[in-house]
Amino acid sequence: MKKVLFAAFLLVSSNAIFAQVNKGQWLVGGTAGFNSFKQGDSKSTSVWISPNAGYFFIDKLAGGLRVNFNSDKAKGADDAYTSFGVAPFLRYYFLDAAQKVNVFADASYGFDKAGTDDKASGNNFSIMAGPAVFLTPNTALEFALYYKSYGGDLYENLDGDRENNFGLSIGFQIHLGGGKK
Fold first, then answer.
1. Does residue 181 lie in a domain region?
2. Please, are residues 115 and 89 in contact by the beta-carbon 8 Å criterion?
3. Domain of 146: which CATH number?
4. What DSSP element (H or E) covers 5?
């Protein structure tokens, strides 16, 4: 019995060695971040988490859906407000599969809704890029520099402009599935 289990483990792990960014793989994980920004006299602090799921349509290119949860607190405000949204995304890995460190770029465009009873809604787009450090052949820790732009009723400000942010995020991704060998 031990030999059968060991042989099954070797078969599964040898298949996983080639797994990462190949066609047919699934990508499941998410990112989290924090930013603080100032616009005029107002200052705001934001914390967000974005779980995602995607599929590699071709080698190194994945597309999927990201869910955004955001909590903002403005200087002098009594309450923080929360928003949630969905955003389709595309992600490209620049290096070949089976690399210990890979570099990725990610772009998304999403729609947001306030977590309160009001009818405010918004939209956002973001781009991010950075290294993905594969801790195992199927799990990666990611660090990214991002740019996000928010607009719509939810993000209204005195000037009527969009809110634009730069920041750093950290993420964790799991690469699933057989993919091509």
1. no
2. no
3. 2.40.160.20
4. helix 2-17
150 domain residue, yes or no: yes
In total, how many domains does the chain have? Answer: 1
User: What is the reported pLDDT for 116?
Assistant: 67
**Residue closest to 85 by CA, chosen among 34, 175, 148:** 148
- Terminal CA-CA length for the chain: 28
Range of the domain at 56: 2-176
Q: CA-to-CA distance for 81 and 59, rounded, in angstroms?
A: 40
Tokens coding 144: 């990214």
Sequence-ordered list of residues with C-beta below 8 angstroms from that of 17, at least 6 positions apart, any chain: 98, 137
Distance CA 117, CA 122 (A): 15
Distance (Å, whole) CA 167 – CA 161: 19
Residue 87 domain flag: yes
pLDDT tens profile 154-173:
766 545 677 788 888 999 99
CA-to-CA distance for 112 and 114, rounded, in angstroms? 7
